[in-house]
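In the design runs reported in the main text, the only information available to the sequence generator was the tokenized backbone. The following block is the verbatim input for one such run; it is reproduced so that readers can re-run the procedure and compare outputs position by position.
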């Protein structure tokens, strides 16, 4: 009886050391050199693109910036432009080397300070100083011109009678261009200005200005 009881234990010990207890061999991991090479190329390509962007961002070109307002039809003055260095973005900005051509041209539209000049903003001939136009000088007193009027603004020229017998106030020029500004007084809202008006209206405006019966009103929305 004791012999039959020990037999299963011997068989179990034999089972633990048999082939069934051995681990199956693991196949070696497959290497993919093509994918590794592609990853390296992508990394190098990204680094190269970043380097090119940094280098291109440092490219600077010379351009012209407007420093003073220039009204449509007005000539560019030397004091109204300056040289600036900007990033080369591909926009057709006028180069500083072309400044003499700019000084010989006129603004096609009203150009505000800080604007970078493009070729479309200038024209060879002024539409404001052509046939049928006249320039008139006005010497204005305090209260006859609003503060802040600048070269290139649009104004109304108004007849202001000094006596009731001379009739009522009326508009002499509905949309005159402020062509130039003279020195102003300390109040900042008077002085000498030159306006461009229709030629037929010039004689009446000159007569009213000589007697001090003229004033101007700014037209902020007109350019």
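Verbatim output:
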């Amino acid at each position: 009886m004791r012999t039959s009881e020990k037999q299963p234990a011997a068989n179990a010990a034999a089972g633990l050391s048999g082939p069934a207890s051995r681990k199956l061999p693991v196949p070696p991991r497959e290497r993919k050199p093509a994918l590794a090479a592609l990853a390296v190329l992508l990394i190098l390509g990204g680094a190269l693109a970043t380097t090119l962007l940094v280098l291109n961002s440092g490219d600077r070109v010379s351009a012209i910036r407007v420093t003073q307002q220039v009204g449509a039809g007005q000539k560019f003055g030397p004091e109204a432009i300056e040289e600036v260095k900007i990033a080369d973005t591909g926009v057709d900005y006028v180069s500083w080397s072309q400044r003499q051509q700019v000084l010989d041209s006129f603004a096609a539209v009203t150009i505000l300070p800080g604007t970078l000049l493009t070729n479309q903003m200038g024209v060879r001939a002024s539409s404001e100083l052509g046939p049928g136009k006249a320039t008139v000088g006005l010497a204005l007193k305090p209260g006859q011109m609003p503060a802040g009027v600048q070269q290139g603004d649009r104004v109304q020229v108004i007849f202001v009678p000094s006596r009731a017998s001379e009739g009522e106030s009326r508009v002499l020029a509905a949309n005159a261009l402020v062509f130039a500004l003279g020195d102003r007084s300390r109040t900042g809202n008077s002085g000498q200005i030159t306006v461009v008006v229709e030629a037929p209206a010039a004689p009446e405006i000159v007569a009213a200005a000589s007697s001090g019966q003229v004033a101007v009103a700014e037209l902020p929305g007109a350019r």
